[in-house]
Amino acid sequence: MAPTNREFLERRNRLLGPGNPLFYDEPVHLVRGEGVWLYDADGQRYLDCYNNVPCVGHCHPHVVEALCEQAAKLNTHTRYLHENILDYAEHLLEKFDDSLSRVVLACTGSEANDLALRIATANTGGSGFICTNATYHGNTAAVAQLSSIFEPIGGYGEHIRMVSWPDSYRALHDLSGEQLSDAYADQVRAAIDSFSDAGIPFGGMIVCPIFANEGLPDIPEGYMQKAIGHVHNAGGLYIADEVQAGFGRTGKWWGYEQSGVVPDIVTLGKPMGAGHPISGVVANGKLIDEYRSREMYFNTFGGNPVSSAVAMAVLEVIENEELVDNAATVGDYVFRGFRDLQARHEMIGDIRGAGLFFGIDLVTDRDTKEPAPDKAKTIVNGMRNNGILMSKIGEHGNILKLRPPLCFSKENADVLIETLDKVMVTV
Questions:
Q1: Are 246 and 65 in contact (CB under 8 A)?
Q2: What is the pLDDT of residue 3?
Q3: Which domains, from first to last, does the chain contain?
């Protein structure tokens, strides 16, 4: 007889520890994936509306074939010459602004953000960095300092400043328009000034360009131009954490394209290998060259022949199946469906996002915009029980988070919208 979920949990807690997080009140025991679908040990099928890591769909045949073929030939570290890493680097860099001309490969988004900070410090001489007050950038000792939703052991260092994320829905001081973008950008300028007052050299600012963990806000027009203008005027660098926003997720190749502000450094991860561990830092060549002149950086597994083959296959699938355009087209279709739901359900205060990345802000009252985290938790678990996987995010834990694979179809969207409507009626 197969073990029950309770038995699995007891074994998991014994081996991994009880603090290891799991989704849902009743965790899902997954055993197989295909396209947008996941299957549990009992054969139950789930529509995956959460996992942006397998961005081209679970177990895509082209990606699996590339992995197996290269793994059968050679896999070693990157201190030997190998064509795969060079072919991939060329193809990847073609997707970026011309100013972003070099790439360093690693294994995880945390490593990429850690390395980005080191590159910024090597070039600016600064150790002071700005992030927002409701974000996450990884789990190394360095980037944990920038992850405001999980306070690191020992607290935050004097070299970190957190500013309000640019929220238009619950706007700062009830401002709007240019006054609102100025107010948020002024916090960045004040943070920079506080570094100067404390005698801490300024290194830069790191943000997800679509503020994904903060809840995918409608960014006040002009905010990024103003905020990054302050950063550059003070000699700092702009690091765009594209670990969630990149590779077509927003209906464009990169999240930073939404604002038109080109970063100095871009970090990549999660969907880069569609589940295989590979990440990267893309930057102006001068920045990477200056860093390498000061420190020898290598990563035993980062960009190895198998990882590079897998990552190349991911790019090829995105291109050949026109998944960036699909994210934009199907994303618009989903948004229209969500707006119809908003007209029927008072708990939906706001809907936002871009491409196939959605945030549904739940409230107890539309006038006061009081967050409704309990409703969000109930709906996430209700959707799981009805065969759809999703999650929640945001400073208040009240925003439904959906980011299905890029191959998500309008037919999949209809299932999502109909099921969400049914679950919301019961809340």
A1: no
A2: 77
A3: 30-56+324-425 (3.90.1150.10), 62-320 (3.40.640.10)
